[in-house]
Trimeric intracellular cation channel family protein (Dyadobacter luteus), 606 residues
Amino acid sequence: MSIQYILEIVGTFAFAISGALAMKDQKHQDWFGASFTAFISSIGGGTLRDILLDSYPLVWISDITIIYAIMAGILVTFIFYKFLLNLRKTLFLFDTCGIALFTIVGTEKALNLGVRPEIAAIMGIFSAIMGGVIRDVMTNEIPIIYRKEVYATACFAGACCYLLLDNLGASRNVAFISASLLIIVIRILAVRYEWTVPRFFR
Amino acid sequence: MSIQYILEIVGTFAFAISGALAMKDQKHQDWFGASFTAFISSIGGGTLRDILLDSYPLVWISDITIIYAIMAGILVTFIFYKFLLNLRKTLFLFDTCGIALFTIVGTEKALNLGVRPEIAAIMGIFSAIMGGVIRDVMTNEIPIIYRKEVYATACFAGACCYLLLDNLGASRNVAFISASLLIIVIRILAVRYEWTVPRFFR
Amino acid sequence: MSIQYILEIVGTFAFAISGALAMKDQKHQDWFGASFTAFISSIGGGTLRDILLDSYPLVWISDITIIYAIMAGILVTFIFYKFLLNLRKTLFLFDTCGIALFTIVGTEKALNLGVRPEIAAIMGIFSAIMGGVIRDVMTNEIPIIYRKEVYATACFAGACCYLLLDNLGASRNVAFISASLLIIVIRILAVRYEWTVPRFFR
């Protein structure tokens, strides 16, 4: 079991928690709705990436551990949600680490399947954000990427950083860790100092 | 022509009717919108299942009868909709039989493609509900699974029942019929006695 | 480089512009959101068609020119949007030519993959309209097909015209140009004379 695999399972678990918690303020919420939302949030991005790249079987279909990680996330949310809601900062850090990890894993996977770097960056961003986008579309929210302005943009910067370092011949671990840290740092600074992406229409 | 094939065609026809009728209260509705909605409602769930499982060609692409069953459903809705709207109970029964059938057919198909039972259950539920979810997302409604509380949960119970009986060595017909009946009975009782799934956040 | 290839690139460019401009009236808009929306609008329809038909690799993954055409559309919108908003009639013409082209290219591609004419027509319509539908669903708008009534219907007429001429043994160019013109003419007349598709429920 590689460190990366453990991180991916932890990332899926964290995404399931944030997915289930997203149902908190919905008028209609029950066990099924919360579980479904947690599931979609966790696997949506990677699933879309793999469908676009024709990479089968899908990760969560061939590796049942993913499903159990999601179930654990749902259960933990159910039992500890009052506690979790007081941990907003910790959750934010978990979510940020999750999107950083998913971006780089997604970029790398696409690259290994032989696509061009531009496409690999798109796949990395999709892996990280599309689960949340699908969740928001399903619950009739404005998708996260239109709200939290420096969110997908941080993923974009991280994917570019990874591709650049990879191109410059950096070792895979150096590229992986640097790019992930870049995403985490950008998002923390963005929230701390209320950075926004420039408006498109002035 | 097996009984199951005939049932699937009837199920598709029923889903097309309920899809077209869903446009009744939309501000904007016309022939194209109603047909499109009927089509998406009927084939959405099975299509998503087959894409996730990489099972090609898609059923409605290789078997044109599906398309004609949907067209028939649209035409019947157009001609008889006033009559149909008075038949709410009959329609409810049709829809319930439809989701029961689609759940078990979906579970079985996934199982035959060699996935684990947990994944097969997810695929069964997706087959039954995702057409309605996609329809609701497209028409800006809160998806059905967040509203009708014991809807997807009935499908879940039916899929588990099928997998259990299959595992215990029951004949395929016994498993199929028992699991379908379970879904139908749960949904009828749920509507009759206003059962709800327990809230996730208390 | 065939004329059709150049037209497809121009069509993608035009769709990217109309996708980015669709963010104009959104409360939340920034560089990332506008670029993402332009991207989804341009490639959504063709991507869905290719996934449904299991036709891989996806066009924009194997041909990077598509990505650059989209980027050019985003940049042109950013620089010239005030000018573009005064060009509503020109943009309408561009968009109409875009959907005409995408409909016929999509129908033809499906036909070449060996599906039945009915399915090819559905694929042609999907190629033209689903990018806009996905964009509208993501930005919480009522999808375009429910609003602009003679929009998808024009695509449907064009696809049928192409299939009919093809069946009658017309040369491919004759069928292509006639069917495209039919879509363009229907849409222009529909907007000019406020044609609407008959209501489904009277």
Residues 3-192 of chain A form one domain. Chain A touches chain C at residues 51-54, 115-116, 118-119, 122, 133, 137, 140, 142-143, 145-147, 149, 152-153, 156, 196-201 (CB under 8 Å). The mean pLDDT of chain A is 90. Chain A is about 75% helix and 0% strand.
